[in-house]
Write a structure and sequence with these properties.
It is built from no helices and ten strands. The protein is mainly beta and about 130 residues long. The radius of gyration is 19 Å and the shape is elongated.
Length: about 130
Amino acid sequence: MRGTSASSETELLLNPLTVQVMADPNESELPADLEVDIAGPDAENVYTVSGQKQLLFEVSESDPRIATLSIGIRRIEPVSTASPVEFTLTLTANGYHTVTRNISLTDAEGEMCNIRLMRKVQEKEGAIFGR
């Protein structure tokens, strides 16, 4: 019985942005409840490079204090300074400051965005304590 197979070298998504998140300097790993949210005018055009709409960080196997998120956009929707992809990236985790970045992608050159998470300082009975 003969089969048919097809192969395509065409990339459907481009990777114009990789977000690297680093743990608070006093922590040995990233928070387990780290969440990412995308909002704004072009949020519906943002994917992972594997084509998923749910954005999840990949924690480094060699260093649990670092994770990356590769942002993908569709190749058939050209991005330029005249037609940027604009969205807001928000990171949240319990006990940490919320991080918000306004992103405007004007080309597909593969930029890197580094974000350092910081623990919230806790106040207790008039004194200020860090974790």
